[in-house]
Amino acid sequence: ASGGSSLRPTTSKVRSAIFSMLGPAGTSGFRVLDIYAGTGALGIEALQRGAELAVFIEQNARRCDDIKKTLERHRLAMQGSVQRGSALNTVGRLKGEFDLIFADPPYDLVEFEALFERVSEAGLIAPGAIAFLEHSKMTELPDSLPGLALSTHRLYGDTAVSVYKSSQNLETASQQSGGE
Prior knowledge:
By secondary structure, the chain is of the alpha/beta class. Helices cover 31% and strands 29% of the residues. It is built from 6 helices and 8 strands, in the order αβαβαβαβαββββα. It has helices spanning 12-21, 41-48, 61-73, 87-91, 112-121, 167-176, and strands at 31-35, 53-58, 80-84, 98-103, 125-136, 144-145, 148-156, 159-166. The N and C termini lie far apart (44 Å).
């Protein structure tokens, strides 16, 4: 990012890859949490594709205003709420469960483990939830994060997308198959 701005919007290529990974049903009826929302592009696209609601977390006041304006412009203001603050502080104040979680922090901010510790403690991960974590390809993410287990990992140039699924259903699955 140039000019001291850490805004690095998800490229449209990565964004379409993420939504195609969700399959034909897409985001229909999902409750979406867009952390480090930036322009809010991921959460807004999820709403346009049928998500029930989206909560955006963004630290920068001007970007929060921009997200609100975009929501209004797309007539999605009733389904989107924008929370201003740092990701780590804000997730603890949220209520309810989310089916789809986006986390696309600035590349130099690697706090996924601390973040999902708080997300998990706050009970925000719905059974069957999917989380898309966008990060630098240089950043190695663990096979599991609090409440989540790594499902797939894809590279797009310098960007990596790690897809995690709620570990709630994996635990039951491994018990049935006589796993660990």
